[in-house]
Protein 1
Amino acid sequence: MHKSLHETVVQFLTETIPLFEAFLVALSLHVVALPVLWMIGWALPWPKPPVITTIIEWDLQTWPPKAKKVFDFRDPKLNK
């Protein structure tokens, strides 16, 4: 006749598992697709897609054109 509350809750949870799994698949596809679409330039027009590259280039503006040797930092008087 009437099911107990425990049986009803268990049945509800077992019936919603496929729906929850489909939701997780859709969410993961969106999480993967958004950065790809952003880098292509089809989504989120602000800021411009190569933001990370721009930040790195700005940070490296003051770097010398040629890399220093390790011993220049460790012992600058070594070759003088």
Protein 2
Amino acid sequence: MILKRTKAPQILSGDIVAMTFIGKLVSVFVTIYTIFVVAIVTGVVVNYYGQIVEMQRRETAMMFLDKLERLPELSKEDLEDISKRVQKFR
């Protein structure tokens, strides 16, 4: 028997404890594997959202530079918008 249910007072009632060396070894490997899987999934999700934020930042900067290149053609409202953005960056 690799795993055994225990009802000892020092351990919470109904806990499953590895009794053999193989059972303990398997539980250690499963624990380490689970930690790696959780770490990898978390890293992938954070990287994905980080790339999205970076793309949005670049797109916003490109739109801003495009407006600056067409400065004489812009309306008064667009010029005021650019002025507010520049003040915001300072």
Protein 3
Amino acid sequence: AIASWTTKFLLGFLPTSETPHVITGAIDYRVLAFNFALSLATGLLFGLAPALRSTKPNLAPTLKDQVGAVAGGGVRMRKALVVAQVTISVLLLIGAGLFIRTLQNLRLIDLGIKPESLIAFNISPAISGYTPERIPALYKSLVERLSAQPGVQAVAFANVGLLEGNEWDSTMAVEGYQAKPGEQMNPYCNSISPGYFRTMGIPVLVGREFEARDEGAMPKPSDPNANDGRGNGYRHAIVNQSYAKRFFGDRGAIGRHIGFGLNPGTPTPLEIVGVVRDSKYTGVRDEVPQQVFFPLLEERTPSSIVVYVRALGDPAAAFAAAQRTMHDLDSNVPVYNLRTLERQIDRSLLVERFIATLSTAFGVLATLLAVIGLYGVMAYTVARRTREIGVRMALGAVQGDVVWLVMREVLALVGLGVAIGLAAAWGLNRVVGSVLYGVSATDPLTIAAACAVLAFVALAAGYVPARRATRVNPVLALRYE
């Protein structure tokens, strides 16, 4: 039952729209049989050593009426296992803390957009039989009708969707800038509709957004085989802060020119008409790239687009409006992959969320096993030392002395395990360093928190048998065998 519930819980992390195969939580009896055999073999393997030891008892304590004497080898082995459990618990708790902080850091990143009340969906008219000549009119009609729907504040669309792992880069020359050999001159690009930055919540710092007049392409040259030198039909471009700062510095980017290509003498006919604030492009983890935006031209309209809708209230109403509007325009063109931007961002952190949850579960489980092991060893030790404790109490030992007698052993076991775990934790950076974000594998706060949690629960587990030892009746303890 636990295995079935756990499997379904883990499958809940997979987004159904992106899962290529049907995965169910049904238990496979072959896997169940393998795990049963493995559990049985593990029990036999670890139970064999004590069983063999019991066949060779040390008769000397028995003949001397010292049944209560502790077999040193057996106790040492138990304590060594407890130390190992504490060590593993420290490592897993530190790992869980690091992955949780990584997830928190990623969720707090400034993406450069306002994802609240922003929804997105995809349409692909070409799949439904639309020719390139008919597609621009469909896009314009969709924006006009959807913008008029109640509860819709703004609508825009783009060729490349944000934070989806897709990218379009192109080699571009900059007016008055001589690129060095091997220098990176490939900004990330996107073609967008007017109102895109307003819809996405990306501020225009200088200049303006694209307007309807920007969607017309430049006239083609008379010679169709000639290189028009006019920027692939584009007339205007908008760049982000990073691009403007790199190539124009404090001189200002407005009115400067860029062009496609990097060969000597490459024309730079595209005029920069705006500079926008930096925003993420491919993913949450990725650094903000240098970006160049172009208007969507009628003659270069993509066959599929991502439509963004800024809702005034509940995004669910915007979802319904989008589906209804597209159905009214053409019921043969499906609306697919509807999502809120907040859900998309959360989905892009699927791996980090899964690792954080799984590592936390393993850390808690390992700590629980360490606590049970520590409690068992100390309870066994107290039981075997009952006569010794009775003698000490008969000679005047108070409860605090008895508690300290047991707890110093607990402190030694926990301290040794934590020390070994901390030493091993220094090697975590090589293993998990590439997965972490905004935190080091040797982060002192995370390590201190993990050690504090483990120490607290371990000392609490050790205190129970220590407290029980103070209730020993000295008279009965002297006769204990």
